[in-house]
Sequence to fold (247 residues):
Amino acid sequence: MPNVVKGSKQEKMVVVPYRPGRRFVFVCLLALGIGASAIGGFMFGYSNTLRSQQSKQATQQELSEQLIGTETENSELRRQVAILDRSSVMDQRATEEVQATIIGLRDRVAQLEQDIVYYRQVVSAETEDTGLIISQLDINATRESNRYRYKLVLRQQDADGDTFLIGHVNINLVGSQSEEQLILSLRDLSAEQDQLDIRLRFKYFQNIEGELVLPDNFSPDRLQVAAVSVEPVEKSINQNFSWVVER
Fold:
């Protein structure tokens, strides 16, 4: 009987069969389980690592391609900016040249306008007392209250007897009807005239005469005479004659 110290805790003893083979199998299975777990963990970690590396490589490849594309686009934009800068400089120079040309042309036009005014004054002074002139305009009443006889005499000043004066004359009657101003051509009032521009061709003088009939309720005010000669001297005349009737 074993020695027992009085007052100490007594533990129960269990008697089991001694089986060394089962223990060995258990140890082996435990070792295999641990090894399989270790291998599985390694393979799982390796797989995750591999996938992570592949993902990083793909991302790096994509970023590299984007970087290349961005650098290419940046280079193209820089090239376009350089072109635009050069174009801007050229446009500015062209604008300055155009503005200088415009200023020069304006100055030239102003000078030419002054020359034209001068030449017109000279020509007017030379032709004022020669060539076509209005010599006479008469309006005579008839027995009918709205019917009148007219006679316009155009003459060639300083005529040499050999040169024809060629041109035309236009005659309008200005008045009012129902408080509205009307301008009537002689063609519309006189049966003797069938053209607005009455042809002129004479050596010394030409008479334009006939009868005109006023519309009802028409009040005449003045006659407008616009005559133009093209030979032997270019000249134009524009005169207004008050409506004065001779009885």
About this structure: The mean pLDDT is 82. The longest strand covers residues 218-231. The two ends are 187 Å apart (CA to CA).
